[in-house]
Design brief:
The protein is α+β, with helices and mostly antiparallel strands and about 325 residues long. The protein is about 40% helix and about 15% strand. It has helices at about 15, 20-30, 55-60, 80-90, 110-120, 130-140, 145-155, 160-165, 170, 180-195, 210-220, 255-265, 285-300, and strands at about 30-40, 45-50, 65, 70-75, 225-230, 240-245, 270-275, 305-310, 315-320. A hairpin with a 4-residue loop joins β3 (about 65) and β4 (about 70-75). The relative contact order is 0.06.
């Protein structure tokens, strides 16, 4: 019988040579698999995965440490196969270990399925933000109660959008692994693309709220200032949305001549300028106001209209047109 690692590949010859076949087979018989790896600090470790839930007490007593990110038990030092095999022989998993009494079950036993049933039964409209995040985390993190983690993430970052856009290094503080990080990034990009579909190939002036939703989805959670231009044709249909400049946390250099030049290249009849304030406050700065005036003059010289300049904050926006600044 071929011994396999967690990923389905054969275990290394060195791993097989270090222990007896009977010890390896005893692990396989109860659904456990062995492989070598490295810990976060680069040290060599042995990892046992598979049907570990039934044998978690035995694996802990044999010197293992649960790695929640990898979902395996880690052992430092020598190959733990023989020690684990002897521990399993001395303390086999009880018959019907998956049928715990109510007193033995963790408080969140069956909680995931109840949340899924609620989502399928009554829909997601009534879910609070932490419940939505909790549900999403089900698909990135296994075998733990994700409700406390969802609440901690929202308390730390603020909103669902802030969590989806949070810096990877900051998320590591919450033991968010790469699989979950990719899930969060994919959700953010999906939201932006769905919002974009609501504004392309239609007059944006007549779909103003959808335009605002799109701008929020793409810019509200950026960590540095980003200056975008929405180029419109004669019917105010969106031709293109382009990032003109990226700046620092509180400044983005904008060159009026470059704005006018790009509008002419795209044969645009009008534009809407959009930029974000990473501070969260959308109030236009003096520099924003002066720059907008300069761009308006440059556009007017070539017959292009500036419809508006939107400043996107984390939870609100400011419109130069509505504020009487155009």
């Amino acid at each position: 019988m071929a011994v396999q690692e967690l990923d389905g590949t054969p275990a290394s010859p060195s791993a097989l040579a270090a222990v007896g076949d009977d010890d390896l087979l005893s692990l396989i018989a109860v659904g456990l698999h062995l492989r070598q790896g490295k810990s976060r600090d680069g040290a060599e470790v042995w990892r046992i995965g598979g049907n570990t839930l039934a044998h978690r007490e035995t694996l802990r007593e044999a010197g293992g440490t649960w790695n929640r990110l990898e979902q395996v038990w880690e052992f430092a030092g020598d190959d733990p196969t023989t020690a684990v095999a002897r521990a399993l022989a001395a303390k086999p998993a009880p018959v019907g270990h998956n049928s715990k009494t109510d007193a033995e079950k963790p408080h969140y036993h069956g909680h995931r399925q109840r949340v899924r049933d609620r989502a399928l039964g009554s829909g997601l409209e009534g879910f609070q933000d932490y419940e939505l995040l909790e549900l999403l985390l089900f698909y990135g993190i296994e075998r733990i109660d994700t409700k406390p983690l969802a609440k901690k993430l929202l308390a730390r970052f603020g909103t669902l959008g802030d969590v989806f856009a949070a810096d990877a290094e900051l998320l590591k503080e919450f033991d968010i692994d790469q699989r979950t990080l990719v899930l969060l990034r994919a959700l953010r990009e999906s939201s932006a693309r769905l919002a974009r579909r609501e504004v392309v190939e239609r007059p944006v002036i007549a779909s103003w709220q959808k335009l605002l939703d799109y701008c929020h989805a793409t810019l509200a959670h950026e960590k540095t200032e980003r200056f975008n231009i929405l180029f419109l044709d004669r019917k105010n249909v969106l031709i293109a949305d382009e990032t003109q400049q990226k700046g620092t946390v509180d400044h983005t250099p904008v060159y009026p001549r470059e704005v006018a030049k790009r509008a002419l290249q795209l044969d645009a009849s009008a534009i809407i300028m959009v930029h974000n304030h990473p501070s969260g406050d959308p109030t236009p700065s003096r520099a924003d106001i002066e720059m907008t005036k300069e761009v308006k003059v440059a556009l007017k010289a070539v017959g292009i209209e500036l419809h508006d300049h939107l400043v996107i904050g984390r939870k609100a926006h400011a419109s130069f047109k509505s504020l009487g600044l155009l």
